[in-house]
Design a protein that fits this description.
This protein is about 40% helix and about 15% strand. By secondary structure, it is α/β, with parallel strands linked by helices. It has a 7-stranded mixed beta sheet with strand order 1-2-3-4-7-9-8, sandwiched between helices. It has a two-stranded antiparallel ribbon with strand order 5-6. A hairpin with a 2-residue loop joins strand 5 and strand 6. It is globular. The two termini are about 30 Å apart.
């Protein structure tokens, strides 16, 4: 929690400035507990957020560590949103093509420098304090890039039986991309890695929530998958929307089927399990068909 550029800080959850003293912070915590407790009409999800926020800043040592990690302290030398370091692990990995989160990372760097630098070089575009002060659309771009990179690491760890294409061109512009196409023995899946910055709900097979506005992520994902399927002459077995763990009430939420394609929304921590076991109702792929589907995708997939 609070690791996303879109998420509220622990201080924002508790309703205070980051500069308050420890006594005022404790008073704010107790007040927020009373305001959000389900027994007094509060929201259970917010009540849990308040408790988790206190776990992060409730003691002087924890608070100091949190401030350094998130950029509240002025002498911090660590940033929470840097590109991932190269891995030293030599275990067999999934076959991987494309650059996960690459397009959004590049767009973020261009736009944050335009916004913050106004022609002057920005020393650290990933500085947490700078990121938190940036407009929401910039923070969301970085949050989505991080989400895509997280999914890529999960799929990579599943081994050589999996093949994944990242940042797949699925429309007239880069915004129409399909974040990941994953081919595995359990099926062929289109995956979008999202971060909407808050708890979501569901209605009529679509994801809903105050932070989504007019976006319809399930509808958009299925449309992108159809574009890729037509170009490669393949059939997807399922659609997967991956969201931060704290934004979902349960690990896997089935949303029914669309044109025979089952759709599920999953927590990040549950993605590996879903890909190994398969989306419920998805058609398994094996033998010569697996090889044929991989060849078709490899010949037709284009990257943004």
């Amino acid at each position: 929690m609070f690791d996303s550029p879109l998420s509220a800080s622990a201080y924002e959850i508790l309703g205070v400035e980051a500069t308050v003293d420890d006594a005022e912070l404790r008073r704010a915590y107790r007040l927020r507990l009373r305001q959000t407790h389900p027994d007094t009409g509060g929201d259970a999800a917010v009540f849990i957020q308040v408790q988790r926020a206190w776990e992060l800043v409730g003691t002087p040592d924890d608070r100091a560590a949190y401030d350094r990690r998130t950029g509240v302290a002025t002498d911090t030398t660590w940033s929470g949103w840097r590109p991932p370091a190269a891995r030293a692990d030599t275990r067999p990995r999934a076959r991987s093509y494309g650059h996960p989160g690459g397009w959004r990372r590049e767009r973020y760097l261009v736009l944050i420098r335009e916004w913050a630098g106004r022609g002057v070089e920005v020393p650290d575009p990933y500085d947490p304090a700078l990121v938190r002060s940036a407009p929401r659309e910039l923070r969301r771009m970085l949050a989505d890039a991080l989400a895509e990179e997280s999914t890529a690491r999960t799929v990579s760890d599943l081994g050589m039986g999996f093949t994944v294409w990242h940042d797949v061109d699925a429309g007239k512009d880069a915004d129409d991309k399909l974040d990941h196409v994953v081919l595995s023995p359990s099926g062929l899946y289109g995956i979008m890695s999202e971060d909407f910055g808050g708890v979501v709900g569901f209605r009529r097979g679509e994801i809903t929530g105050p932070s989504l506005g007019t976006r319809a992520p399930v509808t958009g994902t299925l449309a992108r998958m159809r574009t890729v399927a037509r170009a490669a002459r393949v059939r997807f077995g399922g659609a997967i929307i991956v969201l931060p763990d704290d934004d979902l009430a349960q690990a896997v939420t089935p949303l029914g089927t669309s044109r025979g394609v089952p759709v599920v929304v999953v927590r990040r921590s549950a993605l590996a399990m879903v890909l190994r076991q398969g989306v419920p109702g998805a058609r398994a792929i094996g033998g010569n068909e697996l090889f044929d589907v991989r060849t078709r995708l490899q010949q037709t997939v284009r990257f943004v």
